[in-house]
Structure formats: structure tokens, C-alpha cells
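user: Please supply your own:

assistant:
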Amino acid sequence: MTHLAISVVICVYTEDRWEDILAAVDSVRAQSLPAVETLLVVDHNPALLERLGKEYKETPEEVRVLANAGPRGLSAGRNTGIAAARGEILAFLDDDAVAEREWLFHFAAGYEDPRVMAVGGRTMPAWASGRRPDWFPAEFDWVVGCTYKGLPPGKVRVRNVLGGNASFRRSAFEAAGGFATGIGRDGDKRPLGGEETELCIRLTKALPDAVLLIDDRAVIHHKVPHIRERFGYFRTRAYAEGLSKALVARSVGAGKGLESERRYTTRVLPAGVARGLRDAALGRPGGAGRAGAIVTGVAAAAGGYVLGSVRARRGAATFTVPVPNRVTNTEGAQGEVQ
């Protein structure tokens, strides 16, 4: 396998996740295929920036600590990492996740084909309670940032990768620009998403021959705190996803923006409801709850999409797409802690 220089970008924003951040970095350091560097991009939190700078001051080449050079939020943090990174491949890991030892090895293997512009992996939930809540449908694991039931197994071509466990060639950003700000997460505010979907669709428009893959051997384990095991969060996150999809559709068109979602809602989710009702009829725990959660999740997402579409048409919801030469210009990266 051809050796590729891989930079890992981890965006962080709160000291409440201090131990999680250290665990994420340790999992990168333990990779069978070493990264050339890990970049910790701190989102407008001077205390955390200083603390991490002290934590990794002895390894400034291996672990680099940066301040988000753009507006607050995950997308701008990722763009800061892209601009500063030295690697040919940029891999992204959530700050509350740990990667298995072969994570980067499987990413790198995907790039043997020069047409491949992005490779994603499989994200497994690590439930705070120790087990999946009975009512929580696997078809909605995207609510907690994880791989959901309905995605094809193995190494397959996809429309988009999932941002918390993904990698891209640097040339992908040179062709399409970076992550759109105003779509994705902003700390602990409303749990929006969709920025990686918008980027991937924009990428394939810029490079029609580009191939995007998911290899489910590239595994990470993502923490799911107690609050995200609650039905209230489930409903809120589904609603926020609808808002996000409206912005994605506004950016890249509803045809591509909702292509996968149509198959998901017409095939995967009805089958999930049927399984839940069957389990309920057989007296298995959680069956009725899972069926009800799927229906509620669809309704919440649809409501968010309708409202988001109205706001987007009125100009109340805005986003910005970084131009290619800015997001890949390392001179634009600011605030590195030495």
C-alpha cells in the first residue's frame, strides 16, 4: 500500500470533555499507520486553548493546538484544521470518540484508487448507560452521531461520508472549498448537522468523476451521554436535522440534497416500523416504542425541513461556503499554540 501522509483534525470546544479529548488523541497516537500530526482546533475557548497548549507542549510536531480562525462552530474549526494541516489526506475525528487501531490504515487503503476523494468509516455508539435504550431505533443512530441501520455494509460507494469519522484528499478541498459555516454544529446550541453532506455533494459537482466511499472496517466508538439517550433529545435532534437539510437543499438543490433521504424514508423506515410492531406483538421489550420513535422522528424532521425551507427562502437562514484557495491556504491559519 502506498504510504500517504495523514493529518488528523479534532475540533474541541469545552473543558467538560477534557478526558474525552485526551482519549481521542491517545487513540490517534496508537494507530497502526501513524498520522503525521494531530491538530486540536479549539473553538473560541481561550482557557481550553491554553490548557491544551500546556498539555502537549512537549510534542508540538506530533500534536498541534490551534485556535479556530473563523466564526464559532464546527465547520469553521474544521476549515482551520484543513488550512494548517501538512498531510495529503485530512481525517476528522470527534472529540468524544476513540478510533480503533486500524482506523487510519483502512482510510489509507481506500485512496489506492486515485479517483477516491473521500473515505468514511463506521461509528459505533458507546451508551453512557451501558446499553441501547429499548425504545431507541437503530435506524436513527445518526441522531447520536453514529452509523445507522440502512447504510450498506462493507466497502461501498456513497453520496456522502459522515463528518465525525471521515477523511478527504486535500485536493478535494482545493476543488470544492471547505465546510459551509452556518449549517453545522455550534458548541452546545441547537444540534444542527448536514455540513458534510453539503460538502460531499458540492465536491461531486466540482469533480463529477470523484468516488466517495464508506469502509465499515474503519471503526470509531462515539460516546453517547445520558442526556442524548432521552426522548426529548431524540426529538430535538431530528427537528434540527430537518432545519439542516433545508439549508443543504438550498445550497446544492433538493434533487441531490434529498436523494438518499428519500430512499431512507420510503424503504428503511417503514421496515423499521414493521419490525417494531412485530416485536410488540411478540411481547418483546421496546417494540412499540421503537415504532413510535420512528414515526415521531420522521414528523419532527419533516417539520424542521418545512420551517427551514421557509426561512431559507426569506433569507433568515444563511450560510457561507469558503472558496477553495482560502480553505487550503496554510497562511490563513492563525492562533497556533507553541
